[in-house]
Amino acid sequence: MARIIGGFFTSHVPAIGNAIAKKQQNEPYWKPFFDAFPPVREWIGKEKPDVVVFFYNDHGLNFFLDKMPIFAVGAASDYVSEDEGWGIPTTSAFKGDPKLSWHIINGIVADGFDPVMCQEMTVDHAITNPMLLMYPDSNWPVRIVPIAINSIQHPLPGPKRCYDLGRAVGRAIESYGENLRVLVLGSGGLSHQLDGERAGFINKAFDQECMDAIAGDVSALNKYSALDVVEKAGAQGVELMCWIAARAAMQGRVRELRRSYHIPISNTASAVMLLSNEPVEAAKAA
Ligand code: DHB
Ligand code: FE
Fold it and tell me: Whose CA is nearest to atom 10 of ligand 1?
């Protein structure tokens, strides 16, 4: 059976890709951010996931204001990186796992979700930057399943809906017959607002509350509406929904392995978390 071995959560600010390309990881501006990653890479190198199931938000590449699914699941065999103009070097394509994608789609539809099914999908900095942070040599040893959550066009799905989506995806993964080690990934956040009167808005207290909930009981965030999150985390801080869904997919005994928080990277409160997920039965036996 497939097993969710852990969750990795990271901001995906486009400038990260440029900093990697220019080898600026040790410059004073970037060092506090990049210092979070060697232990994450060490854990990933040891745990060797086969597939990364990404909860992320598309920034106008596949979907725009004219047609915006609330949730969309990739079922392609390749995902080409085509960022939407931040000047990030493009990477080699990511391999998909269409069979697992269709299993997840079937599972969540049976659970009452109506995702858009994407047999062709390109990906932006919300996928390429976390992949580069895990695998800086751009050799991708994993396949990916991207699950896009609308964070652009209102109405936005709120914490409870994204929590339920994550639970349904988690159930689907854990019921997959192949022996796969799956890492779930929440891409984006934490608090940030890129435009309007509150451009540059960051809310450290709310970010801490969210990270504590991600480490512990993520359903504690379900009391907030999508608009509460806009108010508390900023208009783009709603990328938090990707973290909520990824965390909700983890249904075993969860342990916090790493946490890092640094203000700001570009306009964003940058945050990184790594959690392990042990099957409840194994945890009981130990
Ligand atoms: C920034 C953050 C994002 O999440 C994004 O998608 C684009 C830009 C930023 O802080 O620059
Ligand atoms: Fe973003």
Answer: 267
Q: Which two tokens stand for residue 135?
A: 């695998």
Whether 188 lines ligand 1, by a CB cut-off of 6 Å, is yes
Cα separations (Å) of 163 from 55, 144, 156, 189, 222? 11, 21, 13, 16, 8
User: Structural domains in the chain?
Assistant: 3-285 (3.40.830.10)
For residue range 56-110, list pLDDT tens digits in order: 999 999 999 999 999 999 999 999 998 766 778 888 999 999 999 999 999 999 9
Torsion of CA 34, 163, 149, 101, to 10 degrees: 90
Instruction: Assess whether 103 carries a catalytic annotation.
Output: no
Among 12, 59, 125, 262, the active-site one is: 125
12 classed as catalytic: no
CA atoms of 136 and 20, how far apart (whole Å)? 8
Q: Are strands 94-95 and 51-56 parallel, antiparallel or unpaired?
A: unpaired
List the residue whose alpha carbon is closest to atom 3 of ligand 1.
13
